[in-house]
Every structure is written in C-alpha cells, then in structure tokens.
Design a protein that fits this description.
elongated, Cobalt-precorrin-4 Transmethylase, domain 1, 240 residues, 7 helices, 21% strand, Methyltransferase, Cobalt-precorrin-4 Transmethylase, Domain 2, 5-stranded parallel sheet
Length: 240
C-alpha cells in the first residue's frame, strides 16, 4: 500500500522542534496537527501549506475520547487514500497523546507503514527548569486523574510528578479547563506528606526568552486558584 504515516512532536514551543520533525512536516503530502500555541500553528503551516488543524474536532462538553477517535480517523483517512501523512502534536507525540498511538496501531494493522519520531516533552523541560535528576532517588510520574482513580503506592522519599492537575477529574472537554477533583487529590497526597510540605506548580514555557511558571506552594494550601489546564505538580522527596 502506498499510503504512510509519520507522527512527530513539535516540542514544547516550536523553537524546540527537532530537525527530523521539521523535515517530515515539509515532505508530507498532508499534515494534520494539534499544537498549544498560535506561533506553533503558524510555523507548521509555513513548513507545509497543506497542513490543517485538528483542534476543531474537540466539542465543548463532550467526552475527550470522542474527540480522540475523530482525530484518529481524520489522520487515517488520507493514509488510506494513498498519501504520505504527517501528524504533528505538541510536546512528545507519544506522551499523553492517545490519537497518535491509535492511528499508528490501526495504520499498521491495515498494512501501512507507520512510525513515530520523538519530541521534547514537558518532562524534559521540567527536568531542566527544576534541576531534577531522576538518577538521584528515582522519579515517580503519573497522570493526575489516573493517579487519583488507581491510588498507586508511592514512595515519599522519591520525587513525584503529577501531570494535568489543572484538569484532574474532568471527564469532558472544556476550553477553559476545570479541576473538579483537585481537592480529592490533595487529600490523597496528605495521607503520605505533611500539609506544609513544599510543592511546585509548574508550567513549561512555550516561547524563547520567556521563563517557565514555577510557583511554590505548601501541599495543604494547593487550590484551584494556583493551577491552569497546563499545570503540572512536582512534589519533592521527603529527606531520608
């Protein structure tokens, strides 16, 4: 079959896109993209005038998985038509990007070539901005809603990262974002950490020269006022 799929990441901010991702976008017959800022959208379209956004496949108040299914099929439609397709997602295309994994799996099952290229993720930025070294005492990393639902055993003497705390507990899409279960998440963490334990609400910067958001807050004082849909929570280890 002549159609093919390559999935790339644009990085956290287009300045962090890799050379091979740029080349893949430029060479594609068709590009489908989902990015988090207008500069990245403009840059993708400048690399390939046949690029179009997947953002309009979200529907206010609809389950996230419905949008992800529409994105998956939108990516596969031109592949099935015999085109060389590039799907571009912000950050790393394999991290918290269900449509990328679904599209690759289905494309391969249908006999098409499908590959993924790595990108600079929010975790990469966090390691750099907060000076976190996973080689020192390890690193625990969970999506916040999944963490709250499964309640895995954690080790307080090892650093903990909880992604997407700004939408924890949200079951449907909202352009403004909401975190209906943030209080429950804090209560769960207080079972293992003291209320005064210092945490960091973190957001990577999408633009060169603009610093990341690094907001220190005691765990017991963490509230919805301190987070946005892009927020990540870093919980430093309790000293041994």
């Amino acid at each position: 079959m002549s159609g093919s799929l390559i999935v790339v990441g644009t990085g956290i901010g287009f300045a962090r896109i890799t050379l091979e991702a740029r080349a893949a976008i430029s060479a594609a017959d068709e590009v489908l993209y989902l990015v988090a800022d207008p500069v990245s959208a403009t840059a993708v379209e400048a690399l390939n005038p046949r690029a179009r956004s997947l953002d309009d496949l979200y529907e206010e108040g609809a389950p996230h998985r419905d949008a992800y299914e529409r994105m998956t099929e939108a990516i596969l439609e031109p592949v099935r038509a015999g085109k060389r397709v590039c799907a571009a997602f912000y950050g790393h295309p394999g991290v918290f990007v269900l449509p990328s994994h679904q599209a690759i799996s289905r494309a391969r099952s249908e006999g098409f070539d499908a590959t993924m290229l790595p990108g600079v993720s929010a975790e990469d930025c966090l390691v750099a901005d907060l000076g976190v070294d996973p080689a020192v005492n390890g690193l625990q990393s969970y999506e916040a809603s999944d963490f709250l639902r499964r309640r895995p055993a954690i080790e307080p003497t090892t650093a903990l990262v909880l992604w997407q705390i700004g939408v924890v507990g949200a079951r449907t899409y909202s352009a403004r974002g909401s975190a209906p279960a943030l209080g429950q998440l804090v209560e769960l963490l207080l079972e293992r950490y003291p209320a005064g334990h210092g945490t960091v609400v973190y957001e990577a910067s999408s633009y060169p020269g603009i610093p990341p958001l690094v907001r220190e807050v005691g765990l017991g004082a963490l509230s919805a006022d301190a987070v946005t849909p892009a927020s990540t929570l870093y919980v430093p280890p309790i000293p041994r």
